[in-house]
Structures are given as C-alpha cells and as structure tokens.
Write a structure and sequence with these properties.
- The protein is built from 7 helices and 6 strands, in the order ααααβαβαββββα.
- Helix 1 crosses helix 2, helix 1 packs across helix 3 (50-65) and helix 4 runs antiparallel to helix 7.
- The longest helix has 22 residues, at 3-24.
- A hairpin with a 2-residue loop joins strand 3 and strand 4 (144-155).
- It folds into 2 domains: 3-65; 67-198, Beta Polymerase, domain 2.
- It is of the alpha+beta class.
- It is 45% helix and 19% strand.
C-alpha cells in the first residue's frame, strides 16, 4: 500500500469514528449528514462508506454499553415477536437493527407487514397499543413512485416501534440495504421464534460491503 493510500485510509477511519459518535448521540439524523459534519469538523474531504461508519458505530456501542447491549437485543427480539404475533395475518417480517443484531440503546423495532388495506393494520394496532400515529412516505424508483404507510407506537415500558405497510405483491421482492450493501432479508415470525430458542444473539451481517 502506498503512503498516499495509507494516509487516505487513516483519514477515512477517523471520519467514520467521528460520524459514528455523532450518530450514537443523536447529534445528526442520518449517515450522510454524519459523514459531512465529521469531515467538516476534522477538516478533511475523505468520505468513508456507510458500511465503514456502521462498523465504527457498532464498536462504539459495544464499548459504551457492554453486556447490557446483548441483554437489550434479546429483550427487543422478544418484544418484536409479541408484536408480530398480533400482526400474524399480515405476514410480518422483522427488519432493521433488531433483525441484524446491531441494536443499541435507543434503537427501535422495525417490522414490515403486507396488506391491501393499510387501515386494517392501523385499526388492529390501535386496539392493542396506545399513542399510535401514522405517516405516509413516498419513494421514486425507475420513474415509478410508491407510497408507504408508516405506523409508529410505543411498546411499554420504553420501546419504540415502526411498522411499514407494503403491498402483498412486494412480499418476495428484495431490497438493497443502503448501509451494508447486502439484501434486506429479515426474519419471519416463525424464524424469529426459532432464533430466540436456539441462538438469540445471532447477527446477520455481511463480512464487508457488497458491490
């Protein structure tokens, strides 16, 4: 490795570490902002990949939270299973950091469900939980715009939950992860139950960013 590449890599590591700190303490909203702010504060222009920032964030969370982080992951996965049991008829799938095994203090539980009638999902959750709120988001891909319903609520005592409603036609579609670069596979209800029985701390991470 040349001296120039060694310096570049060292700068990239420093930016990733600073970006991870910004994300951990909720000083920025997303990876893009974290990298830009980190570059500005360090006075460099070398942007690390989202994957590099995610690895640094994972290490930082482990360092700060220690053993309690593993206890939290098990608790979040058990909570997710309880919620998915309620949503059984909508083919729920656990995604996000609780699926991956990278959840940390403040992480929410992300669940995707599939239904032609999003209001049916909302009504079910309103019967089961308090403070349910909804929000539509739009995503444009290849000239086509899709609208998705996001449902938010708190699971006692303090877990935040986000449920995204997709069309049943999308149940077998695969989506790339913007952070890790792999496909978002997730866990079905039965898969999550089996995981909790056999390997509750298992992680679902690529060894490196996939091209």
């Amino acid at each position: 490795m040349s001296v120039w590449f060694a310096v570049k890599d060292k700068r990239s590591v420093k930016v990733a570490e600073e970006a991870s700190r910004l994300l951990y303490y909720d000083l920025v909203e997303d990876y893009k902002s974290a990298k830009e702010v980190a570059c500005g504060s360090l006075g460099v222009k070398t942007l690390p990949s989202n994957f590099e920032v995610a690895v640094a964030l994972d290490k930082l969370a482990d360092k700060i939270e220690g053993e309690s982080r593993r206890d939290l992951l098990i608790n979040l996965r058990r909570t997710a299973l309880q919620i998915m049991d309620k949503l059984e008829i909508f083919n729920p799938k656990l995604v996000g950091s609780v699926w991956r095994g990278t959840s940390r203090k403040g992480s929410d539980i992300d669940i995707t469900v599939y239904s032609e009638r999003p209001e049916a999902v909302v009504n079910l959750l309103k019967r089961e939980y308090n403070n349910v709120r909804v929000e539509y988001t739009s995503k444009t891909s290849e000239g086509a715009t899709e609208r998705y319903l996001h449902i938010y609520f708190n699971f006692p005592p303090s877990h935040e939950v986000e449920v995204v409603v997709r069309s049943p036609e999308e149940i077998y579609e695969r989506h790339r992860c913007e952070v890790y670069g792999d496909y978002i596979v997730g866990l079905t209800r039965d898969q999550l139950r089996e995981l909790l029985e056999k390997d509750a701390l298992r992680r679902f991470l690529p060894e490196r960013k996939l091209s």
